[in-house]
Amino acid sequence: MSTLSNPLNHSALLATATDAASYAAHMIMDHFGLAHGYEKAPGAVVTDVDVEIERRLRRRLHTATGFAVMGEETGGELGAEPTWVIDPIDGTSNFITGNPDCAVLISLVVDNRVEVAVTVIPQRGLRYTAVRGGQLVRNGVPQTGTRRCDPTVEVVGLSAINQLAFDLAQTTLRPRVTGSVGVNLAYAAQGIFSAAVSTSPHVWDNAAGALLCESAGLEVRALDGQEWTPRSGPLVAGTHEAVETVLDTMRAQHH
Q: Which residues belong to CATH 3.30.540.10 in the chain?
């Protein structure tokens, strides 16, 4: 059972999540560019490393807190109780091929709100953390006044090449495809990207990065323009101007 009091002890929960993410990051580095993938569903690749990391994270997080766990590889669901949400390797194809844009994503969802978030990009030596109501923290340093992009170079991060990428290229935004939703959202939070778009419906792809961006003072919205929640599915996060450009472009696609 959990030893954490109610209301949530955000500091203790963040420490638990950060420790778990660091453990997973070491496993990623040990197998980076060496693992063999197999298709778990059409267009979706997984490795035994993904599955093993998730298995170990589930045990560590549940043992430490008593909370339920939901993960990409072995399932679970969001309920009324606090739930850890994990993506053991976001950007598995990158991990397999030796591309450093892959990440461990851990978040805690309570009452349809993200309360704690950790994103670690091991091969780039980056760790981003946030708790609800707090600042974005990068490698242990609070990011007060997070750098925003040069207005002459407004970049939007995407995880796949699709029609939206081509349409956004006709706007003031410059699309960049990383192959990882979590990396895109972390880069938006830091100010490397002006915005990031996730077309993934899965909470494990979106939740951690959504809180990072919110903590950096960015807008986080569902693709219908409404406020994003963990049950909303896809999202766009970024500066107000960049988010509006993305949403306007998507609206034009449907006319």
A: 10-142
Asked if 158 and 185 touch (Cβ cutoff 8 Å), the reply is: no
Dist CA 56 CA 50 (whole Å)? 10
The CATH classification number of 10-142 equals 3.30.540.10
Binding residues: 72, 87, 89-90, 205
Q: Residues forming the annotated binding site for Mg(2+)?
A: 72, 87, 89-90, 205
Domain with CATH 3.40.190.80 in the chain: 154-254
- How would you classify the pairing of strands 173-177 and 154-158? parallel
Cα separation, 55 vs 171, in Å, equals: 43
The pTM of this model reads 0.94
Instruction: Return the number of other C-beta atoms located less than 10 Å from residue 144's C-beta.
Output: 7
CA angle 92, 190, 109 (to 5 degrees): 65
Q: In this structure, which CATH number among 3.90.1720.10, 3.40.50.300, 3.40.190.80, 3.40.30.10 belongs to the domain 154-254?
A: 3.40.190.80
Nearest to 185 by CA among 153, 221, 150: 221
pLDDT per residue rounded down to tens, the chain (255 residues) = 344 446 899 999 999 999 999 999 999 999 999 999 999 988 889 999 999 999 999 999 999 999 999 999 998 999 889 999 999 999 999 999 999 999 999 999 999 999 999 999 999 999 999 999 999 999 999 997 655 656 678 999 998 889 999 999 999 999 999 999 999 999 999 999 999 999 999 999 999 999 999 999 999 999 999 999 999 999 999 999 999 999 999 999 876
